[in-house]
Write a structure and sequence with these properties.
Shape: elongated
Oligomer: single chain
CATH topology: Jelly Rolls
Radius of gyration: 25 Å
Helix content: 10-25%
CATH superfamily: YjbQ-like
Amino acid sequence: MAPTFASERPFCAHAPRAPEPGAGCPRPAERPSAYDPAPMRSHTAYRTFRTAQRRAFVRITEDVDAALRESGISEGMVLVSAMHITAGVWINDDEPGIQADALEWLDKLAPPSWQPPANDVARELLPDPGDYRHHRGGEDNGDAHLKNLLVHHQVIVPVTDGRLDLGPWQQVFYCEFDGGRPKRLVIKVLGE
């Protein structure tokens, strides 16, 4: 049994500070009436994307803002999540150079397809027979799965005074890495 000290006061989850010695912990019904938080609410919206390009960045800030307005929530957060393992969501600048640089960087880390090894060292590092193991099952999108890991599939945006609390250049994007078929995204608004 752990020792107790006279200066320690018992913890009370229902009071703003520890009760005085000898006093019990007030029950939730005994809280001051000023402590009456607004009830937590939620709102869900879905969007479907079908990009003509295999890889694309689609700005969805307006979609997220529309879901926030539909919710009526003024304080809280918005979760934006791609519902596919070959897509992602990110917050960044809406500038074509950033997007082109990001795709080039992602292609360096997860190339669309493996090239023949340049030398013996490269041959040792590549999966046999020089392509993604995922492709052995008939797929051709191994790189899209890895790009999803790098970008990630969701973001959280704070909501303050009924507005998305984004920085001056920040925009929300759906990131497609294996386009050509319909894919869904969920927008979940939580708050009061």
